[in-house]
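Extended Data, record Stage 0 sporulation protein A homolog
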Amino acid sequence: MLTVLIAEDDPAMRHVLNKTLSQIPGVEVLGEAGDGITALKMVEKLNPRVVFIDIDLPGKNGVELAREICDIYSQTILIFATAYDDHIHEAFEVYAFDYLVKPFKLDRIKKTMERIKQQERQRSPVPTNHFVPPVAETNPARLVIRQNEKLIFLDTQDIIFITREKRKTVIVTSIDKISITESLNSVETRLTGNTFFRSHRAYIVNLNMIREICSWGKNGYEITFSGTRQTAILALNKARELEKTLVLPGS
């Protein structure tokens, strides 16, 4: 079931979107928000799979809302539905799945949702024959992190990936998830070397733990790992950089 939240300040448009989406099999509208602040609270509470976002929201505009959603639930699918076409670049900076310019046909919404449903059903592996593990590790052997009033010493080889979740940085290992207040950018600066890679604005991945990279629609690719069922995202603009990082000379 695809769960949806609608963030739109026009009550009439909210009604139209809700009615249209509710008629699509396999789609459930969890709620509506008329401003950006309320929408963000509802995302944190309901964790919808898809969020329809109007650019011109009061309180917190659509682009700001989208960026904050990415920091909380980076795999949420974002769809901009707006009367303005001059924010397309900003929309795709936050890896929006689609950008609908009003007035749009209702069939356009249905087609977008069908594309998402198909993507959810079929995440086909992409060729990875050129992808190989790094030749040597140059990262520090241990990462020291502060959690509340204690220090935790982590072997970097045990880290699978690091992400942002509910305004915290979360370090995922095969046996634990550790939440800290340190920013993702700060942690990244302490992991200089060739073992860890910033695959997305909300993810740092351990290249030696990657098991498979699969298509994830227009948003990029989904990364699966050894040691956990959790996944990460590889942004489209990072895919070529990753390939250059991992490919052997002459291959």
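Summary. The longest helix spans residues 106-121.
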